[in-house]
Amino acid sequence: MSRISERYQRFVVLRDVGKEGLQRIRKSKVAVIGIGGLGSISATKLVTLGVDHLRIVDPDVVDATNLQRQFLYREKDIGQPKVHLAARRLQPLNPEVTIDSIEVQLTKDTVDDLVKDMDVIIDGLDRFAPRYILNDACCRYNVPYIFAGALGATGNLTTILPGRTACLECIYGGVDDAQQPTCHSIGVYPTLLGVVANIQVHEALRIVLGHSPRLAGHLLFVDLNSLRFDQFPIARHEDCVACKNCK
């Protein structure tokens, strides 16, 4: 057994993966936008899964407050760009994966180049303003977008399939970031981030494998304190501007 096949042996034997599924994964291109609490975990899982091309995007540098929950970074890294540090830590986990680290702010001017050639986008952002930009681009380029948010002990997720399911504007249109609580104000359990990020990656994996994502058309709420997982159906808005731009 070759080193490559041995690496994935426990994965290939899964009934809904197999050798064909592994080939799909090893040809896939996935982007993680935001390489903080959620994104650090998502990127690590994607590398170990063996995606062909992982794109990680973040404009920020490491801050001391990141260290308690963003395990790709160390105290000596404070003040250095996250994406380049993350790439250096991720690459040894699987040398077969191409990691594209992009230190850029997601804006209307930069988003197209970040999204258009990807198979799936995973949201690791912490504000709605850039999420709306990302959602709009995913609609225009017909790229699945896995949204997630996590604060305190609660998280919420959905998988957006442009033109088929409700998009972020349909679900959370008009959110003003200035009026929203943040990790800075109320904190977040690192354990919650692991739960939410792993669900995001599993949804991305199902898309790459050609299976229907479980959260397409549904919003999942996670409450870690009560250990409740509640799903609610969500519908598209006929007058949604973003959805009208879907290919």
Short summary:
This protein has 247 residues and is of the alpha/beta class. The chain has helices spanning 3-7, 9-12, 18-25, 37-49, 82-90, 111-115, 128-141, 168-172, 183-186, 190-209, 241-244; strands spanning 29-33, 53-57, 98-102, 120-123, 145-151, 154-160, 218-223, 228-233. Helix 5 (82-90) links the parallel strand 2 and strand 3.
Can you offer a commentary on this structure?
The mean pLDDT is 95. The termini are far apart. The longest helix is centred in the last third of the chain and has 20 residues, at 190-209. The chain is globular, with a radius of gyration of 17 Å. The protein contains eleven helices and eight strands. The protein has 247 residues and is of the alpha/beta class. It is 37% helix and 18% strand. Helix 4 (37-49) packs across helix 10 (190-209). The protein has an eight-stranded mixed β-sheet, sandwiched between helices. It has one domain: NAD(P)-binding Rossmann-like Domain (Rossmann fold, 3-Layer(aba) Sandwich).
